[in-house]
Specification:
A 5-stranded mixed β-barrel has the order 5-8-7-6-9, surrounded by 5 helices. The longest helix is centred in the C-terminal third of the chain and has 18 residues, at about 215-230. The radius of gyration is 16 Å and the shape is globular. The protein has helices spanning about 25-35, 65-80, 130-145, 165-170, 180-190, 215-230, and strands spanning about 15-20, 35-40, 50-55, 55-60, 85-95, 105-110, 150-155, 175-180, 195-205. With about 230 residues, the chain is an alpha/beta fold. The structure holds hypoxanthine. Hypoxanthine binds near residues 92, 157, 178, 180 and 204.
């Protein structure tokens, strides 16, 4: 069962895995939100933990940054470890006046320059969308919690330092923000017949140039985490 990237055994992960990009954030979530967390993977420092949240068994594991990295970890969790749901909890750069710093973006679609159907013929337009069940649970919970959130498409770029025209192309199509993982996560979930959702905190704005300090990022992160744990 262990893979080149994951030393956990079958059964070590819960049905739902929360997936931040940053391994240290995975550790933080495990230590601050989960009861009795056990570290189940630390290959390449991609820390993975399983514990309970309000009596519910939940795991958290980092994705690393970008489409290739999340592709590896989500593929293995869905296809080799029996994981049913992956909820990405990340940060995002705003491409829209409707998504302000600290807002939460709940992604109902992920745009990508990569045409995954070229490599995986089963992929259709619908594959770039989250699980409708997770999406609707997240929207309901965000309303109930009185969070400042927006629902819409995100652009999953391959280039953090890319040409601004590329971000503009997807802003024009309605993307609320730019991040680097969701298209691959959604397509992998589709191919595996599993469920995925991305929830992100707006950490910077490509419109105004503002960005959050690391302390402010941590505070914004708490609301998003509680939302994710609520629907896990
Ligand atoms: N670009 C890509 N990914 C990001 C950004 C960004 O500006 N901000 C947070 N994640």
């Amino acid at each position: 069962m262990p893979t080149p990237h994951n030393s956990a055994s079958l059964g070590d992960f819960a049905q739902t895995v929360l997936m931040p990009g940053d391994p240290l954030r995975s550790k933080f979530i495990a230590e601050n939100y989960l009861d009795n967390p056990i570290c189940v993977n630390n290959v390449r420092g991609i820390q993975g933990y399983t514990g309970t949240y309000m009596g519910k068994r939940v795991s958290v594991m980092a994705s690393g940054m970008g489409i290739p990295s999340i592709s590896i970890y989500s593929h293995e969790l869905f296809n080799f470890y029996g994981v049913e749901n992956i909820i990405r909890v990340g940060t995002i750069g705003s491409l829209s006046e409707n998504a302000k710093l600290r807002d939460i973006i709940i992604s109902d679609q992920a745009f990508s320059e990569i045409d995954f159907s070229k490599y995986f013929p089963a992929i259709t337009e619908e594959s770039y969308k989250p699980s409708p069940v997770l999406l609707s649970k997240a929207i309901t919970s965000a309303h109930e919690r009185g969070l400042s959130f927006v629902v819409g498409p995100v652009y999953s770029t391959e280039f953090f330092y890319g040409p601004p025209e590329l971000n503009q192309k997807y802003a024009d199509k309605g993307a609320l923000g730019v991040e680097m993982e969701s298209s691959a996560l959604y397509c992998n979930a589709f191919l595996a017949g599993k469920n995925a959702l991305t929830i992100c905190t707006v950490s910077d704005s490509l419109i105004t140039g503002e960005s959050l300090s690391s302390d402010e990022r941590a505070a914004g992160f708490r609301a998003m985490m509680e939302l994710a744990l609520d629907i896990a």
